[in-house]
Amino acid sequence: MTHSSSIPSIKLLIDGQFVESTTTQWRDVVNPATQQVLARVPFATEAEMHAAVASAREAFKSWRRTPIGARARIFLRYQQLIREHLKELAAILSAEQGKTLADAEGDVLRGLEVVEHAAGIGNLQLGELANNVAAGVDTYTLLQPLGVCAGITPFNFPAMIPLWMFPMAIATGNTFVLKPSEQDPMVTMRLVELALEAGIPPGVLNVVHGGAEAVNLLCDHPDIKAISFVGSTRVGSHVYQRASQAGKRVQCMMGAKNHAIVLPDAHKEQTLANLAGAAFGAAGQRCMAISVAILVGAARAWLPELVEKARTLKVGAGSEPGTDVGPLISRTARERVEGLIARGAAEGAELLLDGRHPQVSGYADGNFVGPTLFSGVTADMSIYREEIFGPVLCVMQAETLDEAIAIVNANPHGNGTALFTRSGAAARHFQEEIDVGQVGINVPIPVPVPIFSFTGSRASKLGDLGPYGKQVVQFYTQTKTVTARWFDENEVGGPVNTTITLK
Ligand code: NAD
């Protein structure tokens, strides 16, 4: 690819310096509403990748000993800087990703919550102590950092997901190599600049750019101890296998098919508004988007109103006031979603609302697909089996709550689900019987706040521990258990274990 020199280039961050890559391989970062090239992103060379890991490895030697209060204070400053730059961050994000400005602010704010949590690391990275496990013997645990950790992020939350990763990894005493999505790395880089301004020392956070080759190198690199990945199931399964084989701790948060079940006793207006927002907001490019609605019993009669609600949403550029549904990230993504809509119709689903090729005045080149709604969807159809990752809602029907639960539990994915009802008994039954890791009750997108953890399950997740919250403190640390005995000057002691049995 040849480039005009007026297009800014995205830098690598190695050892505290933002540097221009020496690579010959570049990719354009494109505004998905206009196709304007905003920047070019390098695919880092092998030498640059190794330099980033080496810098993180060197920095770990001192960072692991940094007092917990000093680490916490960096994140206190960082959360303040993110707050001060919220509008700027949202504008960068919206331009490169396509989200509305309100959604872009939400993307930053959800990540900010993790930074706030990282500022409380003093209360999180605590061991346990049992006094007198034998006479004069105490056992206690230390939660020690692992070393160099790496994070690989997707395009759909370019602020929140990097912030799921490096703040908690660094707050727990690790050093980090981040590989952002090559489709929209600009807001991530601005967040990284602010992290350095907040006081993260050289080498503690490094950033490399690239695609499959960069990711494979991180998976194989012997100096990297843990990898956190968020992205598609196809890539996540590969990363999990490759990095596990190389002996690393790995967590992969992956694709989804999230169902909402609607009972006839639900609050109708609220439910329909929630469904429309959760299915079509952010153009359906959320791993927790509702992509299947199961209308139960008399709620089946609500279908025409749901279609009308979807029809009223405004498709447009994220920067335009009043937009509900922005563009898809790329032309390729748009063509893929349009292809799946065509397949849904060909496989016999009823296309009640076709969002292909909407007219968006002033943005003829945008990657737009409007809200699309199918009914009569069955489990064997492509639109049900594949994650569409666009503004497409599949509607199914069931006679009873148990029948609907059986449909959800038979789907391999387990990222999120929601039930709409006014019945506490139905909600309790659902909560107990549903086999999905994140459950909403009259809450369509139940992403837990960072005092909990993100707990997608089954095919949506590989690895035991989630990417933020309490679980990630475990993920980024090794528990060391110390059993200690101290002798007084004149004490005559026996072996520890005989002491236990004799008393
Ligand atoms: P993706 O899998 O295409 O890309 C994710 C990362 O992997 C990127 O950094 C990319 O550069 C890299 N990558 C791409 N191809 C690769 C390959 N062949 N080998 C190694 N690395 C490769 O995902 P995406 O399209 O950027 O993001 C959307 C996907 O992410 C959806 O499936 C969505 O459900 C999922 N997602 C999941 C969660 C979650 O928490 N479960 C959150 C957000 C997004």
Automatic annotation (TrEMBL):
The keyword NAD applies. Its EC number is 1.2.1.27. Residues 18-482 form the Aldehyde dehydrogenase domain. Pfam families: Aldedh. Keywords: NAD, Oxidoreductase. Signal peptide: none annotated. GO terms for molecular function: methylmalonate-semialdehyde dehydrogenase (acylating, NAD) activity. One of its GO terms (biological process) is thymine catabolic process. SUPFAM superfamilies: ALDH-like. Belongs to the aldehyde dehydrogenase family. This is methylmalonate-semialdehyde dehydrogenase (CoA acylating).
